[in-house]
Specification:
Layout (H helix, E strand, L loop, with lengths): L1 H7 L1 H25 L3 H13 L3 H10 L4 H38 L3 H11 L4 E10 H14 L4 E6 L6 H15 L3 E6 L9 H9 L3 E4 L19 E5 L3 E5 L16 E2 L1 E6 L3 H16 L20 E8 L6 H12 L3 E5 L3 E2 L2 H12 L3 E7 L5 H16 L3 E5 L3 E2 L3 E4 L3 E5 L3 E2 H6 L2 E7 L1 H14 L3 E4 L1 H4 L4 H12 L5
Parallel strand pairs: 2-3, 3-4, 7-14, 10-12, 11-17, 12-13
Antiparallel strand pairs: 1-8, 1-9, 2-5, 5-6, 6-8, 9-18, 10-15, 13-19, 15-16, 16-18
Length: 488
């Protein structure tokens, strides 16, 4: 029918083709003007050129942030509102810690100063820190700490599943709310798709204040999926914190040995909790559009961590400077002996990739541990495209084969460690709300080092000569996936 119509009126078809061409040119200009990174700009341009119509639809669904200005402005305003309540103490904490422990962080002083000036994140002292391996250790500690909570419990999670662990935690939250504690729970509406309306209703009826960070009405057309809240944070009584890679889900306690999940979490008690509290309350006021009454009970100024860890927090999101990416880059460049990294998704931005290659070529012991098989074919292929480049620059690469390694850790030399929520990919370092705890402590560093060496027993190391012999069609697919990596 359409063919006959256009045969009769060829000028209409010509006019439509001209309009489509002009529209594509206009859209290309919009992409060039609106997209901040070169790699993402090129990826979107490829989409609209090589996938006519479909590429344009994909861009308008996922690439355009229709509420960009409102989103940024409102979130930044809320950040400022909360920050004013703690600004004085943050400055006092940072200055005192730096004065008393400057030698301990001197090799990383650029990183420390950057985080303080660019992200207002203080260096804190006297923190007690514990590395928690897998969900088995994490949830045992979580239930212990939450059980003795006296004033408030704040949770912020990317994934919260309606399963055994999720319901056990919900029961405890409802119990504590019934005891008169203020219990607030933020969740990412995209990541927590399995939480279910019944569990949310039960939490609300039990006295828990619940809110999604970004409400998603139409999941398929949700362009704000680009702004995922990927954080995993629990704050108890303004003095104790949990953060790391482990979400609330049964799979993290490994009920099925054939689907083994390897992950790392961190427990902190001490002044470092204040910045996590600031992050949570900023997100809470943004999500609920309500500014809670903030008393000193939310910032336990009398906290005694009882430890020796210096802790600073790197947090990123669409409302802030890329603090995680830039602090990672800075820390890598400060390394003198070794850099051991673990990430489930290795699709780095150029800044971080170049720093890693420079460290390898400088003779440092640089190692990367990643899953042999990821949970996404495209993402896994894109990651594979980087490994030859790393191997050429003296970086050792290990494929974890026991299961899926989901930890996001980095240890540098003997006293710097990073444990957090951010993957080493563009999404985590440019789009998502993320948080990493940077710990200056020999014991924590040595713990992560021993875990890394133990996990190497379940790894296959890849070598340049054999890696180059992979079938050409695989290499082509991997490099094709790499072109789309800024959009993954």
């Amino acid at each position: 029918m359409f063919k006959e119509f256009f045969d009769q009126f060829p000028y209409i078809l010509l006019g439509l083709e001209i309009l489509y061409l002009l529209g594509t040119v206009f859209l290309a200009g919009k992409i060039i003007m609106d997209t901040r990174t070169t790699s993402k700009t090129l990826a979107y341009l490829m989409l609209i050129i090589f996938l006519p119509v479909a590429g344009i639809i994909i861009y308008f669904v996922f690439g355009v942030n229709y509420r960009k200005n409102k989103f940024y402005t409102f979130k930044i305003e809320r950040n400022e509102q909360v920050y004013r309540t703690v600004a004085g103490y943050i400055q006092k904490t940072h200055d005192k810690t730096l004065e008393e422990h400057k030698e301990e962080v001197w090799n990383f002083i650029t990183t420390v100063n950057f985080l303080y000036h660019a992200a207002r994140s203080p260096l804190s002292q006297g923190n007690h820190t514990e590395v928690l391996v897998n969900g088995e250790e994490k949830f045992a500690k979580v239930f212990e700490v939450l059980g003795r909570a006296r004033h408030h419990i704040h949770l912020e999670y990317y994934i919260y599943d309606n399963d055994e662990v999720g319901n056990r935690l919900a029961d405890l939250l409802i119990k504590k709310a019934g005891e008169g504690l203020k219990v607030r729970f933020l969740y990412d509406d995209m990541g927590s798709g399995k939480i279910g309306k019944k569990l949310l209703k039960r939490l609300k009826e039990g006295g828990v204040e619940v809110s999604p960070v970004n409400k998603i009405t139409f999941r398929i057309l949700a362009n704000r999926v680009n702004y995922r809240d990927h954080r995993k944070i629990i704050i108890v009584d303004g003095s104790e914190v949990f953060t790391g890679g482990i979400n609330v889900s049964d799979k993290y306690i490994n009920p099925n040995p054939k689907q083994y999940w390897r992950d790392i979490h961190l427990y902190i008690k001490g002044e470092a909790a204040f910045y996590f509290q600031f992050l949570f309350l900023s997100s809470w006021t943004f999500a609920t559009e309500k500014f809670p009454e903030i008393s000193q009970d939310y910032f336990d100024y009398k906290t005694i961590g009882g430890g020796s860890s210096l802790v600073q927090t790197a947090a990123s999101g669409p409302d802030t400077k890329p603090a995680i990416m830039l602090s990672t880059h800075s820390a890598i460049l400060a390394a003198k002996k070794r850099i051991y990294m673990v990430t489930p998704y290795f699709i780095p931005v150029e800044t971080v990739l170049n720093a890693i290659k420079q460290a390898g070529l400088s003779g440092l012991d640089v190692r990367l541990m990643v899953p042999k098989s990821g949970d996404s074919v495209i993402v896994n292929a894109a990651a594979y495209s980087y490994y030859e480049e790393l191997l050429e620059n003296n970086v050792r690469v290990f494929f974890y084969t026991k299961g899926f390694i989901h930890a996001k850790t980095m240890l540098i030399d003997n006293n710097f460690s990073s444990i957090g929520t951010a993957n080493m990919d563009a999404r985590s370092q440019e789009l998502n709300f993320e948080v990493n705890a940077l710990v200056f402590d020999y014991k924590i560093n040595e713990k992560l080092h021993s875990i890394f060496l133990e996990d190497m027993n379940d790894c296959e190391e890849i070598f340049l000569d054999t890696w180059r012999k992979r079938p050409k069609y695989k290499v082509f697919f991997e490099h094709l996936a790499r072109l789309l990596s800024p959009l993954i």
